[in-house]
Design the sequence.
């Protein structure tokens, strides 16, 4: 049986995802694949090896048989046929296969999906999955790619034929804003020209002294962190609050929530509003006396990052507002650099500044530059979720995206994208 691109798109459902209980025939073919890959150079931990294999789109009949379509009439047939041609507009594409081995443990990742996991000790009991047809086909395709490598034609052919949706690249944020008004409008949704002007005026002062601190601290490379902290306090131009209690902190957070018109920001109390939008892992803040300065001071000593998440979420969607106490008093540190939260962070910073709240913006220079359209957006392959992808790039990325799905929608993007070279595969000894 030949496997085509439409089948590969749904591989996890039809072959199995992270399954560790196969037929003996399937295990034999897995071993055979690993044997034929012995000639390939290791490129990472756990004997990691990478190879791209070429899959054809196939015809419409194979597509309908695979999905077991039964058409009621000619119209349904035509509509599905049109969808097939638009969805799989390329006659073929190259799919990334990663193989890992640690002792007798084996893992195969297919187009960034974990498909096969072999645990020689703890094989799961029950139904045995027969994936031998898929593995036979994969084995043939791997052999074809290896032959191309031996003949020195593999990499050129791969680069010429792989689809843009499978590739990694970068695009300047200002170019993206110019290409896609939705991105630009969404980003500037909360920000007036007055907000932007005030933000830039205030943040320039902070960036100025931050650069002084970095320069002075760099003279002490062996103990940079220690000196940075000391100098940060010395040069910190932010004023301080003499005392803060839990009620004060909740009220400060409410200023932030109201600045972006969050739901219920006018109706709920400051405390209730905080627990509606914050992370919730508050290290006991909920239980301390609202008006006790002493209790809040003790809480600050034990509070962790989660407690300060005033906008709960993942790494790319959370916003922190930390309370810092030094010899001069209290001030706040606001952080959240990723693109789709940095607009809210800017609004928070402006609102706190307007209300004379001492606030230090973490990653201020990065956020300022992105406001001016100077950030870089990473384009990742369509099978990779566009979050937590910084490891794919050697420069700082402000956000990640997929290309629009169809060529007609991304043709214009191609003029502005800088593509990262596709990974090559080498024989041992090269």
Sequence:
């Amino acid at each position: 049986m030949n496997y085509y691109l439409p089948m590969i798109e749904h591989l996890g459902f039809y072959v199995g995802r992270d399954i560790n209980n196969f037929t003996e025939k399937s295990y034999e073919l897995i071993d055979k694949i690993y044997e034929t890959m012995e000639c390939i150079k290791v490129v990472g931990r756990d004997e990691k090896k990478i190879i791209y294999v070429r899959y054809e789109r196939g015809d419409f009949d194979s597509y309908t048989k695979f999905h077991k379509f039964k058409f009621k009439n000619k119209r349904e047939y035509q509509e599905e046929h049109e969808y097939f041609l638009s969805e799989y507009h390329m006659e073929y594409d190259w799919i990334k296969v990663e193989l890992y081995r640690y002792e007798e443990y084996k893992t195969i990742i297919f187009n960034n999906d974990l498909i096969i996991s072999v645990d020689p000790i703890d094989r799961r009991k029950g139904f045995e999955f027969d994936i031998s047809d898929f593995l036979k086909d994969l084995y043939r395709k791997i052999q074809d790619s290896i032959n191309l490598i031996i003949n020195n034609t593999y990499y050129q052919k791969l680069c010429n034929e792989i689809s843009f949706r499978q590739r990694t690249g970068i695009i300047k944020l200002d170019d993206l804003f110019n290409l896609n008004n939705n991105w630009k409008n969404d980003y500037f949704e909360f920000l007036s020209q007055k907000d932007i002007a005030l933000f830039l005026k205030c943040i320039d002062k902070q960036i100025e002294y931050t650069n002084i601190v970095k320069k002075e601290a760099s003279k002490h490379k062996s103990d940079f962190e220690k000196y940075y902290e000391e100098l940060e306090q010395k040069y910190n131009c932010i004023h301080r609050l003499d005392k803060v209690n839990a009620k004060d902190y909740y009220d400060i957070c409410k200023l932030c929530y109201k600045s972006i018109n969050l739901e219920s920001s006018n109706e709920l109390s400051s405390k209730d509003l905080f627990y509606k939008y914050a992370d919730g892992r508050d290290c006991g803040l909920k239980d301390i006396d609202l008006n006790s300065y002493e209790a809040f001071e003790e809480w600050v000593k034990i509070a962790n990052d989660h407690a300060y998440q005033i906008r709960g979420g993942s790494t790319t969607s959370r916003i922190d507002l930390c309370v810092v106490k030094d010899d001069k008093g209290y001030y706040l540190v606001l952080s959240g650099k990723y693109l789709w939260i940095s607009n809210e962070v800017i609004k928070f910073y402006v609102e706190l500044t307007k209300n004379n709240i001492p606030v230090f913006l973490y990653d201020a220079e990065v956020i300022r530059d992105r406001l001016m359209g100077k950030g870089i957006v990473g384009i990742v392959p369509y099978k990779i979720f566009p979050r937590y992808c910084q490891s794919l790039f050697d420069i700082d990325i402000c956000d990640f995206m997929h290309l629009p799905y169809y060529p007609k929608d991304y043709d214009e993007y191609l003029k502005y994208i800088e593509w990262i070279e596709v990974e090559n595969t080498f024989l041992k000894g090269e």
User: Anything to note?
Assistant: Residues 190-371 form one domain. The first strand starts at residue 49 and ends at 56. The longest helix spans residues 193-217. The chain has a mean pLDDT of 88.
